[in-house]
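Subject: sequence -> C-alpha cells, single chain

Hey, anyone have a minute? Need the predicted structure for the following. Not urgent.
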Amino acid sequence: MKELLVLSGKGGTGKTTIAAALAALMENKVIADCDVDAADLHLVLNPRAREEHEFWSGVEAVIDAERCVACGTCVELCRFHAITLEETARLLPFSCEGCGVCAEFCPEGAIRLEEKLSGDWFVADTAYGPMVHARLGIGEENSGKLVSLVKRKAREVAEGCGASWLLVDGPPGIGCPVIASLSGVDFALLVTEPTRSGLHDLARVAELAAHFKILTGVCINKWDLQPDVAAEIEAFCREKNIALLGRVPFDVAVVDSIVQGRTLIEHAENSPAARAVRQLWQNLLNFADLGMKVPD
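Reply:
Had a minute. Here:
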C-alpha cells in the first residue's frame, strides 16, 4: 500500500478540491481527512458514518463549589486568567490551559484536573471507498494527536480491506498537525497558488518535507490567474529540484462542483480543470513510479 499526502503551505489553495478529485480517480483506496481543525472533505465526499468514537485528550480544571471557600488563590496564580471569583471560584473553560497550577496550590483541595472531550472521529463509507475523518471541538487543541489517530485508524482500515492506496488530505501550514500527517507517507503533493504568500508558504512546507526526507511534487492551482507568479513558482521548483507535476487553470466548474457537493471529476469530468487534474494524476504516477494507471 502506498500513502499519498496532499498538503499546502497555507489554507485556501484548493488542496481539498484537488484531494477530492484525486479520490475520484484513484482505485482501491482508503481516504483520510487529517485537516481536523477545519475538516471539509466530507462536504464533497458525503460520507455515511458506520463507526463514531469520542476523542478524549488534554485536561481541564474542575472546581468543587462545595469545597471552595473563595480565597482567591487560584485567581491570583492562574496566568491564563481562566478563573474568576464570584461566590466561589468559577472556571472559564475556553481560557483554561490545563496547566494544573490551580489544583496544585488550592489550599482546600477544591480543584482537580479531568480529561476532557475534545472531538469525535469516524469510520465512514463514501462512493469512492472507506474514509476516516474527525471533528475537533471548538477551541480544542491536540490536533496533532488527533491527526495521528486518524492516520493510524485509516491504515488499519486500508490493511483490513487490502487497499492499494491511502489518500490523505493534510492540514495547511507547517505546524504539529502537518508534521503528524507526514509520518510514514510515500509521497507528498504540495498544492500552491500563484500569489506571493502562496510561494512563501510553499517554500516553508517544501523545506519541512525535505527535512523528513519525503519525496514531493508541486501542483499550481489556478496558475493562469497570475502567470508571472506561477513562473516564479516553477523557477523555485527547478532551483530546489522539486518536480512540477500539475498546472490547474482557474475554472468556474470547480466552484460549481463545490456548491453542488460533488467532486470535480464527477461534476464536470471534461472541464479544463478536471482534465488538468487527470494529467496531474498521471504525472504523479509516472514520477513516483508507483506502478498504477489512471482509469479511462
